Amino acid sequence: MSMIFGVPIAVLSGQLLLGLINGAFYALLSLGLAVIFGLLKIINFAHGAFYMLGALCTVVLFNTLGINYWVALFLAPLIVGTLGILIEYFLLRKIANEDHLYSLLLTFGVALVIQGVLTNIYGVSGMRYAIPEVFRGGVNLGFMFLPYYRAWVIVAALVVCFGTWFMIEKTKLGSYLRAGTENSKLMQAFGINVPLLVSLTYGFGVMLAAFAGVLAAPIYSVTPVMGGNILIIVFAVVVIGGMGSIVGSIFTGLAMGIIEGLTKVFYPEASSTVIFLVMVIVLLVRPAGLFGKEA
Which residue(s) pair with 4 in the sheet? Predict the structure, then answer.
């Protein structure tokens, strides 16, 4: 059996695949956080709850309405994104001019309410969503077995991440979003509806979290508390990449997933803390993050 650094290639490649899948989720979730904070300066502590809602909404739509995966992939983020827009309009807008701490506390409270209500309804036992028929099975690459659905998750996450980067950085809509948050009064003088842009931006960031939840539903156990643990990791990823950095969120999310996977191979005891160790080192060397701008 072929070995690398004393580790079988099959084991190493398998952990790298798992790391890349986790990295895809980290990238999607941290991208949503970066969009919301970078453009709106809102520290969205409800992001994990929206990720959970995307996964749970997929399961509920399938069990109650018989809606297939492809429809859920579009409908669940739209439903959760609409909820995000309502939260921004009725709650976050009231404290838009206050310190960032208020938005953090408010979104943290929203997350607790959502999690508590859904736990009361569904309990904490895991629910499963079957892998779509078209993605069942996999392909033998010789050195590893690659499940089709895992490959789809990686491709879908990368397409959405880089599509979001292109929209924000290279299109007129993205320039409106950036300008509206930099100088809202000037943009309103030009006839741009800045409050609507703010609501849509928050809704879009929430949709990214829900989209990650839909992708996660056939892989992980779906519970009302599934967003809590991953949120802490995602915040660490955002800090490493740089708060508000779109590119930093994408590349750091993928890189941290791979580093986590490699750590499980060579030093499993540190796999749950390696991302936080990297965060500490980055903050000591570059407090603004790898891709962030100094204040």
Answer: 7
How many whole angstroms separate alpha carbon 60 and alpha carbon 45?
24
- Tell me the per-residue pLDDT of 166-212, one tens digit each, with 9 for 90 and over: 998 888 888 877 776 666 677 777 777 888 888 999 999 999 999 99
Burial call 228-265: b when 16+ CB within 10 Å, e when fewer: bebbebbbbbbbbbbbbbbbbbbbbbbbbbbbbbbbbb
Per-domain boundaries in the chain: 3-285
Q: Mind listing the pLDDT tens digit for each residue in 222-281?
A: 999 999 889 999 999 999 999 888 899 999 999 999 999 999 888 889 988 999 999 999
The SS3 assignment for 26 reads: helix
Euclidean distance between CA atoms 143 and 41, whole angstroms: 45
Sign of CA pseudo-dihedral 81, 48, 279, 6? negative
Which pLDDT tens digit goes with each residue over 59-84?
Answer: 999 888 888 899 999 999 999 999 99
Distance between CA atoms of 102 and 257, rounded to whole angstroms? 31
* Domain 3-285, CATH class in plain words: mainly alpha
Alpha helices of the chain — where are they, by DSSP H?
9-40, 47-60, 69-90, 100-122, 148-170, 172-182, 184-189, 194-216, 226-241, 246-266, 274-285
pTM over 0.85: yes
